[in-house]
Amino acid sequence: MGHQKTIRRPVSCRGIGLHTGKDVELALLPAPAGSGITFERADLPGSPSIPARPDSVVDVHYATTLARDGVQVKTIEHLMAALSGLGVDNIRVCLTGPEVPILDGSAAPFVALLKTAGIRRYLLPKLPIQVRRPATVRAGDRWIAIEPAPRLVVEYTMTFGHPKFPAQRVALTVNRDTFVREVAPCRTFGFLRDVQYLWSQGLALGGSLENAVVIGEEGVLNEALRFEDEMIRHKVLDLIGDLYLLGRPLQGKVTAHGAGHALHSQLVREILRQQRVAEATEGPEPAWEPRLLTPEPVSPAAL
Ligand SMILES: [Zn+2]
After folding, report:
1. Residue 263: helix, strand or coil by DSSP?
2. Is residue 264 annotated as part of the catalytic site, yes or no?
């Protein structure tokens, strides 16, 4: 699984939030090994920070929102997916507003930003979390099942109740390559029939054809889809982002049907529960283990 990583140089970008419509500057800054991912609200006195952890999740309605002491950061999932996909463990995410910019609605701009920053490896090893035993979380006819597997495998299905898009299914082994090529470019999506409702809830105020796939009665209103099954691939993107609140890479098979942020978050709690049970019976995992650094030599700059 390799070493913990951060970025080499600070980078930034600017854009509007999907739900708030607010213009926000986002800066990504290197962070020490073992410090994890933290969001900071640079627009508020004292720049309060919120750790990207499962216990920081306060809202899972159409996006994942974190909060600490009443300070919120919304729509973290696409950036979290990019961090997961590129294996970045430690980073400071500084925002000048309450929501991560939506950019083009996918994780591709965040992947490009992280590549511009460059990746720096630490000596501290990365410790994956393993799915210990099969489990299922459900809400009505929507569910997610997990089972042990040597790597992260995701299968996602969804029915949309739309004549042009009745149902979609995708299955893939998630690694850096498959994430960057097949998942990261997939944009968030919404149905025109839901727009009035979303606006009435104060949601999707920044949404447009520039940052979301919009599906009307006749089909997609955007010029073209990036994949024929772009919507279900975006569900995988959201899942990867939400799972990364575990702070460590997950090894296991995840099968989801009709899920969303709420069930993703429930799944994270189930994985943590399994982890606690395993630690209570088998003892804690070693915080470090001796290993040879070859054949992957660490450059002096990373030491
Ligand atoms: Zn999304």
Report:
1. helix
2. no
Spacing, Cα 32 to ligand 1 middle (Å): 28
Question: Running DSSP on this structure, what letter comes out for residue 244?
Answer: G
Q: Are 244 and 265 in contact (CB under 8 A)?
A: no
Domain ranges of the chain: 3-125, 129-282
Percent of the chain as helix, strand, coil, to the nearest 5: 25, 30, 40
Distance from residue 277's CA to the centre of ligand 1 (Å): 31
Q: pTM higher than 0.85, yes or no? A: yes
- Class for the domain spanning 3-125: alpha beta
8-state DSSP, 248: S
Q: HSE-up of 54 (CA within 13 Å, CB side)?
A: 17
Tens of pLDDT, residue by residue over 48-96, are: 999 999 999 999 988 999 999 999 999 999 999 999 999 999 999 999 9
Q: What is the CATH number of domain 129-282?
A: 3.30.1700.10
